[in-house]
Amino acid sequence: MALELTTSYVKDTISLFRLYKGLGDRAIAQAPDASLTVELDPESNSIATLVKHLSGNLRSRWTDFLTSDGEKPTRNRDGEFEAPPQSRPELLEMWEGGWRCVFETLDTLTDADLERTVRIRTEAHSVMQAINRSLTHTVYHVGQIVFLAKHFAGEKWTTLTIPRGRSAHFNARVASGEISQR
């Protein structure tokens, strides 16, 4: 996963968020349109619901990140699990909007900001703790999106990482310089 050797936590975090956004992008692209709002059972979330929730969370956490509580009074968390977007364009607009908040904010942070204090639901966090909280929450839901997209794509699925049974082949190509780990 080492995209670039860095000693900057903020720079590394940006790389990780970009990596997981890319996995989500590629998974959503492979999900058939008709499957975007399908729930596997009544207690499960669809891809569209996960996108709505994750986007709402990212907007809330990353808007005015250093100056206001990460749980905005305008956020309706429960509503994020109702009435998901019904079309791919609407879903993608919501997805991109949440991510835009993340990257616009992270691009302004420096490692000197890591010790500052921010609040989420009035609870104090260091900036580093808040970043870690958001990153792990995001990765959790991107994993769910990937799982669902793979399920619905079926045999048309193209793996997002190293295909099963191909690790040795991949490692040999990396070692020879034929491909990079990016």
Write the layout of secondary structure elements.
Layout: H1 9-30, H2 47-62, H3 88-106, E1 117-120, E2 123-126, H4 127-153, H5 167-175
Antiparallel strand pairs: 1-2
Helix pairs in contact: 1-3, 1-4, 2-3, 2-4
What's the CATH class label? Mainly Alpha
The name CATH uses for the topology is: Four Helix Bundle (Hemerythrin (Met), subunit A)
CATH H-level homologous superfamily name: dinb family like domain
Q: Which regions are unreliable across 5 or more consecutive residues at pLDDT < 50? A: none
- Identify the CATH architecture: Up-down Bundle
Mean pLDDT, rounded to whole units? 92
Sequence of strands across the biggest β-sheet: 1-2
What would you call the shape?
A: flat
State the share of residues found in helices, binned by percent: 40-55%
Instruction: Please report the number of helical segments.
Output: 5
Whole-number count of domains: 1
Largest sheet: 2 strands, antiparallel
Helix-strand sequence? HHHEEHH
* Number of DSSP strand runs: 2
Rg on CA atoms, Å: 18 Å
The rounded distance between the terminal residues' Cα atoms is: 7 Å
Strand content: under 5%
Q: Based on helices, strands and strand pairing, what is the structural class? A: mainly alpha
Give short descriptive properties of this protein.
single chain, 182 residues, mainly alpha, Four Helix Bundle (Hemerythrin (Met), subunit A), 51% helix, flat
